[in-house]
């Protein structure tokens, strides 16, 4: 749940960051020949909107309409009573709060003479809303790719700061959880980890510690700061896994190199797992995704080869035949020319 | 992309009702829910229902699987006779569903370009209900339409809203636990109030308490301040000052079930006007709860609350400009039916759970007070009780 500190920095330079990003989207839309673009999100998929406007969809759903020769309009699917808060904490030219997004777009299209509308990341766009927009008289709806997420793939310096800030909070939370486990308070380790992230200013934070049969626990952690996400998994308090975890993370880091691929990275990770067998493993899941995609969503895109500067989340999870968690190791890496860098060390 | 390989989770042992995950609800819950759902399929003349869930709206997936899914998209198919089957986009979610022990046939291959949706929908009839179809992504709905062949896809979100409205004794016990930890969370906040405490720090304090008590999640809005506060919002950097209100809607989730309490407190010495305003809201809350029993409409509860405010000269603040609803259902999702507002004709059945909250802006600022109830034939079981006098902490 988004319930962390999401106040906008009052410094005017903070606003400029978002205006520049919106202009980049305008440029892309202009190149694609549409008069405006619309990006939809909900409470669980709001990082692209945060990247563009700093606004956080703390409840329900919403959209951002970017008119190529006009304003950026935030369209939260909430009551108008929320407009004051959004306006204080987001960067946009106008706000129209309504659960009827298509109706709001219809009115704005008339006002700004929008004849063609691009659905940004159209595969993820709700089909029902798409149909409503297609029915707006005089409006031609076009499919657009993930223009905003593509911008975030190799983060600009401010976006990178969001990812690094999230990673630093996450790293501190791992240490906090580890201390709790060392004190014999495994049952409270998740609470302490979340507390440390929220006190540090995380927009969203989640830390789950599953007690392990060998003592200690398996930590799975997520942290969001602005448009930056961090995800990590660790064995806490299980000495047998300390070296194995380090080795796995090292393999991941080496895999995060320019020109590398999802398949090659997964192969190396699985080979390493074969070298350090863990009794009883029945199911192994290897997650490799761009950090810009850490937010859960219906997966559609194949990963291309890794580009220098991209951020990649890699994680290995494994379970016994009975479904008990046995392995949880993962982190976020920045792709380098010959090998990656652990993001929390940037 | 491979589409032919077997589901990864098939390598897990087959679940049995007796060997279910210790966190999962009892198997009899699944049987009860399935039986009621299949009756609803008959009523709505549906051959099957396809349930779509994703992290924001996973309530119906959880209702039918007993599992907490967090990774991405999930689909669950229920036909009139066949075994229930599930398809997830994330292996971790598929494992969670298998571990819960309710569903045997679980696949983790839900990704664009795979043919797994086709396998999931095999053998369904010509009329398929789809819950949350209004939110389904274009690409996924395209895959569902293709897999369904010529079958008619019928919106079925309201079917699940009605189904989940009446809760079982096991569900009631979860809601009671969630209320209990919500009350503890509020106590922890009041204990920590001090000048300079920031809103986001207050949320961190409360959530640590909730999580230590076993909460999975929490939805929480907060606002420090006085007459300038016109609504609740996510936490800001704003520090608390002496002689200010503290208000929060606290909604922890326990064993899958949310429960909400709404509380207003004060740091310092409230004025008479602030005391009186709070008193009016408590009276409205009490009037609303006194009205609750099986068979009353949601509108009648709202009218009872609003009439108290009207009688106290606050009638202006019963309009939508200043408030949203006078309460709402809470359960496996944070905001369910019934919506407690004037004119709402839904008759509330025995077994429903909802929060009564006359939360409104008024001249002293926004005030929130709310307690959750379980509806009974003769009235209600009240799960918490807001302080009758504005709770204040002297500094």
Write a brief caption for the model.
The complex is a heterodimer of chains A (346) and B (395). With 346 residues, chain A is of the alpha+beta class. Chain A has helices spanning 12-31, 47-53, 83-89, 101-111, 127-134, 147-153, 157-182, 186-199, 239-255, 262-275; strands at residues 36-42, 61-67, 72-76, 94-95, 116-119, 140-143, 204-211, 217-225, 228-236, 281-290, 311-320, 325-334, 341-342.
Taking all Cα atoms into account, the compactness measure Rg of chain A is 21 Å
Shape estimate of chain B = elongated
Query: Describe the biggest sheet of chain A?
Result: 6 strands, mixed
Average of the residue pLDDT scores of chain B: 93
Radius of gyration of chain B from CA coordinates: 23 Å
Biggest sheet strand line-up of chain B: 4-3-2-1-5-6
The 3D shape of chain A can be described as: elongated
**Strand percent estimate of chain B:** 15-25%
Which architecture of the largest domain in chain A would the CATH scheme give at its second level? Answer: Alpha-Beta Complex
**Helix and strand element order of chain A:** HEHEEHEHEHEHHHEEEHHEEEE
Number of alpha- plus pi-helical segments of chain A: 10
Could you give the order of the helices and strands of chain B? HEHEEHEHEHEHHHEEEEHHEEEEEE
- In what order do the strands lie side by side in the largest sheet of chain A? 4-3-2-1-5-6
Which structural class do the helices and strands of chain A define?
alpha+beta
Average pLDDT number of chain A: 94
Largest sheet of chain B: 6 strands, mixed
CATH topology of the largest domain in chain A: Creatine Amidinohydrolase
Number of strands of chain B: 16
Oligomeric state = heterodimer
Helix share of residues of chain B? 25-40%
* Name given to the CATH homologous superfamily of the largest domain in chain A: Creatinase/methionine aminopeptidase superfamily
């Amino acid at each position: 749940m988004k319930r962390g500190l999401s106040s906008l920095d009052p410094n005017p330079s903070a606003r400029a960051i978002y205006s520049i990003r919106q202009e980049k989207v305008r440029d892309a839309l202009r190149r694609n020949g549409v008069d405006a673009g619309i990006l939809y999100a909900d409470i669980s998929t709001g990082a692209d909107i945060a990247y563009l406007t700093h606004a956080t969809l703390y409840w329900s759903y919403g959209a951002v309409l970017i008119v190529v020769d006009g304003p950026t309009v935030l369209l939260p699917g909430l009551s108008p009573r929320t407009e004051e808060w959004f306006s204080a904490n987001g960067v946009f030219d106008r706000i129209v709060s309504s659960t009827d997004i298509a109706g709001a777009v219809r009115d704005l299209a008339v006002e700004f003479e929008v004849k063609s509308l691009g659905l940004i990341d159209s595969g993820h766009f709700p089909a029902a809303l798409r149909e409503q927009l297609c029915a707006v008289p005089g409006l031609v709806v076009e499919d657009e790719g993930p223009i905003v997420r593509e911008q975030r793939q190799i983060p600009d310096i401010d976006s990178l700061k969001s990812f690094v800030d999230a990673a630093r909070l996450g790293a501190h939370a791992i240490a906090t959880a580890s201390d709790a486990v060392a004190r014999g308070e495994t049952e409270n380790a998740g609470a302490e980890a979340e507390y440390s992230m929220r006190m540090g200013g995380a927009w969203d934070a989640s830390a789950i510690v599953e007690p392990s049969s060998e003592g200690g626990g398996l930590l799975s952690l997520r942290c969001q700061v602005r448009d930056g996400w961090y995800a990590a998994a660790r064995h806490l308090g299980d000495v047998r896994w300390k070296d194995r975890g380090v080795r796995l993370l090292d393999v991941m880091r080496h895999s995060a190199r320019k020109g590398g691929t999802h398949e090659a990275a997964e192969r190396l990770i699985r080979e390493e797992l074969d070298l350090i067998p863990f009794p009883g493993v029945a199911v192994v899941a290897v997650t490799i995704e761009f950090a810009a995609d850490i937010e859960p969503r219906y997966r559609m895109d194949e990963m291309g080869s890794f580009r220098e500067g991209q951020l990649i989340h890699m994680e290995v999870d494994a379970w016994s035949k009975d479904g008990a968690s046995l392995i949880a190791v993962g982190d976020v890496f920045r792709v380098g020319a010959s090998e990656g860098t652990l993001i929390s060390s940037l | 992309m491979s589409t032919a390989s077997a589901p990864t989770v098939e390598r897990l042992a087959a679940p049995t009702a007796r060997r279910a995950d210790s966190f999962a609800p009892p198997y009899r819950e699944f049987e009860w829910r399935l039986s009621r759902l299949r009756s609803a399929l008959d009523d709505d003349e549906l051959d099957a229902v396809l349930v779509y869930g994703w992290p924001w709206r996973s309530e119906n997936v959880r209702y039918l699987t007993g599992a907490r899914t967090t990774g991405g998209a999930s689909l669950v198919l229920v036909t009139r006779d066949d075994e229930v089957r599930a398809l997830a986009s994330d292996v971790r979610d598929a494992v969670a569903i298998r571990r819960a022990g309710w569903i045997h046939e679980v696949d983790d291959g839900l990704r664009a370009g795979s043919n797994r949706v086709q396998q999931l929908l095999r053998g369904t009839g010509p009329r398929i209900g789809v819950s949350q179809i209004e939110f389904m992504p274009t690409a996924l709905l395209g895959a569902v339409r293709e897999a369904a062949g010529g079958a008619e896809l019928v919106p079925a979100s309201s079917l699940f809203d009605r189904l989940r409205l009446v809760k079982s004794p096991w569900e009631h016990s979860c809601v009671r636990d969630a209320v209990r930890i919500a009350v503890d969370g509020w106590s922890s906040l009041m204990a920590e109030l001090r000048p300079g405490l920031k809103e986001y720090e207050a949320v961190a304090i409360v959530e640590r308490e909730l999580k230590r008590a076993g909460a999975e999640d929490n939805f929480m809005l907060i606002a420090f301040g006085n007459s300038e506060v016109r609504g609740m919002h996510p936490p800001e950097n704003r520090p608390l000052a002496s002689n200010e209100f503290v208000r929060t809607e606290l909604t922890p989730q326990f064993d899958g079930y949310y429960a909400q309490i709404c509380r207003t407190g004060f740091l310092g010495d409230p004025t008479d006007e602030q005391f009186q305003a709070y008193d009016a809201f408590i009276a409205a809350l009490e009037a609303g709860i006194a009205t609750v029993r099986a068979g009353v409409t949601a509108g009648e509860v709202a009218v009872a609350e609003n009439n108290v405010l009207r009688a106290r000269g606050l009638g202006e603040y019963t309009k939508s400009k200043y408030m949203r609803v006078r309460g709402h259902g809470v359960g496996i999702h944070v905001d369910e039916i019934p919506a407690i507002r004037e004119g709402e004709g839904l008759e509330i059945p025995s077994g429903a759970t909802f929060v009564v909250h006359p939360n409104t802006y008024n001249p002293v600022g926004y005030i929130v007070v709310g307690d959750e109830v379980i509806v009974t034939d003769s009235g209600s079981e009240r799960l918490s009780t807001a302080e009758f006098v504005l709770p204040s902490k002297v500094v």
